[in-house]
């Protein structure tokens, strides 16, 4: 994903959080604190893979 697309995705999530009545900072803090629970070596390998299609489950 290019930088502009990543920025647009982040802004979209902030906007979505606001529309759903959440405070964006608190929402992202919660998401990032939970992230390590769901992180796995397979997810890392797939995100770094040149052919992400190999990791489709």
Automatic annotation (TrEMBL):
Q: Cross-referenced InterPro entries, in alphabetical order?
A: IS66_C
Q: In what residue span(s) does the Transposase IS66 C-terminal domain sit?
A: 15-40
User: Per its record, how is this protein called by name?
Assistant: Transposase domain-containing protein
Superkingdom classification of source: Bacteria
Pfam families reported in the protein's UniProt record? DDE_Tnp_IS66_C
């Amino acid at each position: 994903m290019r930088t502009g697309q990543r920025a647009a995705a982040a802004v979209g999530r902030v906007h979505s959080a606001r529309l759903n009545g959440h405070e964006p900072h608190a929402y992202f803090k919660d998401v990032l604190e939970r992230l390590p629970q769901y992180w796995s070596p397979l997810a890392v390998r797939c995100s770094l893979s040149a052919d992400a299609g190999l990791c489709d489950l």
